[in-house]
Amino acid sequence: APERNPLTAYARRHPILRLRNAAAQVAIVPSLGGRIVRWDVTALGRNIVHLPDSRVENYPYGGGYEEYSQFERTSPGPAAEFAAQQPSTPRRVVLRARLRNGIELDRTFELAPTGSRLTIRSAFTNRGTAPIRVTPRSHPEFDIGCFRRATLDYTDATGEHIRRELLTARRPRGEVSLPVASVSGNSWRLVDKATGCVIENRFERPEI
C-alpha cells in the first residue's frame, strides 16, 4: 500500500507491540512506521509522548516518535509497514521494513533492565545497485507534563553555550530545528530548572 494514506490507515486495525519492565512500558505500532505511541514512565505516572487527536491532518500518521530516512518530512520511513523479526523479548524487539526507495531498514527498540531508558537503533541497507542518499532524522513529540518554563541548551558552532527559551506559561508547546552545522557538541538538553525535569539527546556527529 502507498505510504501516508491516512484514510486507508484510519480504516485498518493496527496491532501494538509492547516492551515493559518495572519502571516503564513502551507501545509500538509496526504498521504506522514503527511509531512509538505510548511511553509510560512509572515514576512520572504518565505517558510522555504526545499524540494528536483524530481531527489533525494525516492522522494516524503523526505524533509520538517517528523516523525519516532523509531530512525532508516527505521522505520514506514514518509510514512504512514494519514486521517484527524473531526472536523478541519483553524488553527488546527488531522491526524490518522495505522502504519505497528500495532501502531495507532494521530498527531495534530495547528497554533497559531497570529504569525507563529506551535505546533505538536504525540500520539502513541498500539492496539495489544504484546509490541512495540516506540522512536519518528522528522526530519525537514529548508531553512530559512536568515542563513549565523550559530552555533549550546546547553549544553552538563557535563554542558558545546557548540557552534558548522554548516553553513558557503562555507558550506551553514549542518546536525548533537545529542544523548540525550550528551545533559544535554532540548533545542538546531541554531543561526546566524549577521542576528538575531534563531531556538530553546525544548523537554521534559522523552519523548525522
Notes on the structure:
By secondary structure, the chain is an all-beta fold. The chain has one helix spanning about 5-10, and strands at about 15-20, 25-30, 35-40, 45, 65-70, 85-90, 90-100, 105-110, 120-125, 135-140, 150-155, 160-165, 185-190, 195-200. It has a four-stranded antiparallel β-sheet with strand order 1-2-3-4, with no helix packed on it. A four-stranded antiparallel β-sheet has the order 6-7-8-9, with no helix packed on it. The protein has a four-stranded antiparallel β-sheet with strand order 12-11-13-14, with no helix packed on it. It is globular. The two termini are about 30 Å apart. The model has no long low-confidence stretch (mean pLDDT about 85).
For the structure shown, list the relevant keywords:
four-stranded antiparallel sheet, 1 helix, mainly beta, globular, about 210 residues, about 40% strand
Layout of helices and strands, plus pairs?
Blueprint: H1 6-11, E1 17-20, E2 24-29, E3 35-41, E4 46-47, E5 65-68, E6 83-89, E7 92-98, E8 103-111, E9 118-126, E10 137-140, E11 150-155, E12 161-167, E13 187-192, E14 197-202
Antiparallel strand pairs: 1-2, 2-3, 3-4, 5-10, 6-7, 7-8, 8-9, 11-12, 11-13, 13-14
**Ends distance:** 30 Å
Computed Rg: 18 Å
Low-confidence stretches: none
Shape: globular
Number of helix segments?
Answer: 1
How would you characterize the largest beta sheet?
4 strands, antiparallel
What proportion of the residues is helical, as a percent range?
A: under 10%
Strand arrangement, major sheet: 1-2-3-4
Sheet/helix structural class: mainly beta
Following the backbone from N to C, one meets helices and strands in this order, namely: HEEEEEEEEEEEEEE
DSSP summary, beta strand count:
14
**Average pLDDT, to the nearest integer?**
86
Beta content: 35-45%
